[in-house]
Structure formats: structure tokens, C-alpha cells
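S., here's the first fold you wanted:
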Amino acid sequence: MGLLIISSLFGASRAEPRSQSHSSARDQYIVQFADELVASRVPDLAREVAAQHGLTLRHIYSHALKGFSATIPLTKLSQLRSDPRIKLIEPDQIARAFADLRNSRNYARSSARGPSGPIAPTGIRRIKADLNRANTGKGVAVAVLDTGIMLNHRDLKDNIAGAIDFTGENNTGDDNNDRINGAPVRGHGTHVAGVIAGRGEVMGVGPEIKLYSVKVLGWNGAGFISDIIAGIDFITERAGQIAIANLSFGLPSNRRSSALRAAIQNSIRAGIIYVAAAGNDHQPCSAVAPACFDEVITVSAFADDDGTPDMDRFASFSNYGMEIDIAAPGVDILSTSNDGASSLLSGTSLAASHVSGTVALWIAKNGRPNRASADSPEMQRIIKDISTAAEQLPGDPDSFAEPLLCANKAALQMTAH
């Protein structure tokens, strides 16, 4: 089957100019209808409410939420809040990709190839994913909610099952990210995707894991919560096809979004497992959403220099705290980039993608769990199955020792045929 490019109903046709994209959420809101509304009624009612109140619709949500996002003039807000069909109105906000750009740099392809074929980057070796032979993650799909994925990258193109853009920047889901916080980067989403499923010159966790490119962050690594919820709505509708969602972004410290949490909770109830990066501000994870949500697998980062546990240490940038479920490599991670080559990037974004890939291997061996919430006994069992014992790493600023990711345990191994 060829790559499926799926058109977004709204965002693409209402894109702001690139220079202005995702710089302000002014006058943008997320609107939730009353719970009792039948989901099939949502599109018609959203258009009816928009016409009645003079709103400019951006997205309609029917699966993870019942509602819509829109540009709403301040003069219309009080009327809208008194509408009995509406449960909640929340201002839109901006989230940003979690990349530590002090360690972002090129990596020559010529040095990326080992003597007998693809190189196994240090992170892949550290979690022992390179020792897997039979379990390649075949039959499992991960949605990468990010800046997109380079769709024709030769190490990824055979893995991509679908792509969609909710930012309005390209209408394809291709990765056009070249800046984060003003610093150059070569495709945050492409880098995340390569860690999960890279094949070819740079090895990922599972070379046959299927990928969905769900572009919810713009060229500058920033994205509206309303676009992110549209992405969550999209994958929730496809819960029979998509098993895992990777979230390598977050809101600014101490910001919250009840709409975002409700969308994730409803998507988890539909059966999708959410893996979230802890964040890169070296602060308690409790300050960062969605990492602080109990329902997601929250991942901190550690540094490892040589693919062995000998010199492991807690990443100097990584967030920490009791919300962390598991730690994974996140410093100087070699992966695919959106110039068609490879690069090094650091951040809890890459730690999370190691975990997403490993959860996919677990599902390939054992099937999808009945409950997908990280705080459920079933998901706690999976976390135990994909990790070694909790360990207090040097440099960890708190007293909570995290289990360390391991992708070559009995619960992940399959017999070659």
C-alpha cells in the first residue's frame, strides 16, 4: 500500500503566513460541547454555532473531544459562554518541541555506516535494541505528533503508513522544521521518527514499526494546542490502526489545558498508549503538561557515552520527579534528519521515542493491552517488562529512582521463523 496523505478539513486552508505561524494564539479558543451530545451531531452543530455567533472555525473534534476550535472575537465570548449547548471554552495556547539544541549538529553519513551495514547508535545499543533479531515491531503503528516526518527520507519512507498536517503549513505532513527557539535544527519530528523506526544507514528501535506523521508543530517547533487536539482526534478515530502516540513537546512551565488532558484521556480510553517527554528545563516534571498527566508514560533522559551502562548519568537538562515512569537515552542521539541525512540531537524528546519504539516491540510480541492508561496495572506491567530495575543515576536531583529502558528482555523476544 502506498503512502496515504490525508487532507485536514480546516487548518491547511486557513494557514497564517510562515513568518507569523504559531507566534500568538490571540482570539483563538477551544470549545467543548456538553457531554451528552451525540458525536455524529458535532460537525453540524459546530457549523451552526459558528454561523450563529460569527466565528471562524479552525478544527472540528468528534472523537477525542466533542467540540471545535475557532477564532472568536472578544465581543462574542459572553454570548457563547451562555449558550446551553456549550460546556467549556478555553483559550488556545502554544506548546513547543523538547529539543536541547546545545547538542544539535551534523553527523556525516560516511561515518554513520558500520563495517557490515547500518550503524546502531549509542542509544540503540544502550537499550539493547540492536540485539533484537526476530522482533522488528511488525504490525504495530506509532503516531508521531510533531513537526512532521520527512516523507521521502530513504531510511523512513517504507515505514510511513499515513501523513496529515494540522498546522496549515504544507497540507502533507512533511517535516519543514528548521528552527527551535531560534536555533537551527534539521527536523525534530524526523529525528523522533528515526529513533522509533529507522532502517537503512541509521538503526531505530524497530525497523518494521509503521509510522503516522501527524504534523501538529510548525516549522519553528511550536504548535497550537487546538492543532494538537486535532491530531489527537485524528488518531483516536484510527484507534484500531494506531497503537501508540509519541508526544515530544509540552506547554510552558505551570501552564495547563483541560481540553488537552480530556482529549488524551478519551483517546486512551479508545485504546491508544501515550508516551510523553518529561521536558528539558531541569525542573520538577509536575510543572509541565502533558508530561505531568498520570495517564501518559512520562520519560526522562539520561546520558550514555558508549552504548553501555558504565558511564550512565542523569541528563543535565532533563526534568525529574515522581511523575517519571521510565528513563531512556536522550543525549547525542544519532537519527534521521529532514535534509535526507543524519544528525545528532539531544532532549527528552529522543528518550520518549526510544520508549515508544520499545512499547511497539512489546505489543508486537504480546498484543495490545486492554487498558492503555499508564497508571493502570496492565501498563505498569508493560513498563516493568521493558525496563531494568530502578536506579538512582549520578546527577539525578531527586530521590525518585527511575527504571531504565531495556528493549531486549524476555517479554519482547520473538522466535525467528
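And the second, which I think is the more interesting of the pair:
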Amino acid sequence: MKYTKTHEWVKNEGEMATVGVTNYAQNQLGDIVYVELPKVGKVVKAGEEAAVLESTKAAADVYSPVSGEIIEVNEELIKQAELVNVSPEQKGWLFKVRLSKVEELDDMMNETDYKSINSV
């Protein structure tokens, strides 16, 4: 997995990548009560807002860490937004992207580097 400074994670799976928020991010937000997911087919650029998480504390934008086309969203989050809190880096994933610029992954942090700048 790769990580961004804005607390998103990316799991590269060839031409596709799964995106979510880190455990640190969900912990800072508190209890997630609503998730606004992007539309399948939407083309996003790295750094562009792609989703919104609403918690009991605040709403937070989620930025796509990679460029490409949204090919799937986690429909389970519509019914169970709390999956982002319970399992942020597994069951609480947000969306999947067909990568258009695989090399963008090279600019992201590995887990060790991410944890060194965040108390997780």
C-alpha cells in the first residue's frame, strides 16, 4: 500500500487501484455517519476531490491520490458508513480507479514513512 500526506491509501492491483482513508484519518474524524461516493465512470486527477466523509464532528473531503476512471465504489458504505471506522484499510475502502498514470504511485509514501509523520 502507498499513502498520501492527506491520509488516503492506495492499493495497487495492476492497472487498477483501490482507494480509502487511513486509520489515522478515520480516528481524527470520529464516528463516520455518511459517505458521499464518486460516480462510476467519473474521471479524476490526482489531488482532486473524489468523495466526502461526514462524521459527528465534521465533514472531510477525500482526494483521489491517483488519476484515472472510477470503475467501482463500495456500495456497502451507503448502508454502513461506520465500516470506514471499523475497517478503514480493508472493508471500508471507498472506490476503485482504473489508473491512467501508474507512475503517480512512485511519489507516495510507504507505510513506514507514513507512520513516521503520523501518530497511528
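Why I say that: The two ends are 15 Å apart (CA to CA). The chain has one domain: 2-99.

Talk tomorrow,
H.
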